[in-house]
Give the backbone structure.
Amino acid sequence: MALLPPDSPRRRDRGREDAARKQRARLARDVGDEHGQAWAHERPRPKRSKFTVIVGAIFIAFVILGGLAVVLQDGDSQLIRPNCTTPGVATGPAKINPGTNFAWQAAGPEQGPYVLALDAAAVTGPVGGPVTPDNGRMLSAPVTLTGCRSAQTLAAGPDNRGTHEVALFRRSGTGWARVAVSLLEVS
């Protein structure tokens, strides 16, 4: 009974190694493998590690480049940047399935108020609300843009397929003026 495994480097069975070498030689001779016959008389070489210096350098380069992309990321995970001069609206994602939610965010001067509507060419109503669209539906009540940007808000998407407009309206002296549009594709 052997207490050590047969492949232990401390204890080698010469008879077993010779029998394995002879068997490799016979098999190589039987199948006509000249290359195998040449190697059958030598001891098997230990396998080299597949992790080489080049693979290690490539791995380190990917880690560094990935880290740079994260560090140099230019954004605050919002849809639109604050803009105190020009009104704008952004939606995300740009393509949605019918009836799924999408996010919207508006930016512009703090003097408002602003409302957001889906598929509306015009809106009417007093400054304090309620504001009604001529077509489509309202996405927000009158809001002011604190810090020149609204909070990112979720809204239910349209049920019908096609391209839809998310329009931002700003209150002017006589009524509501359409100041920005973002397209939303439903497919």
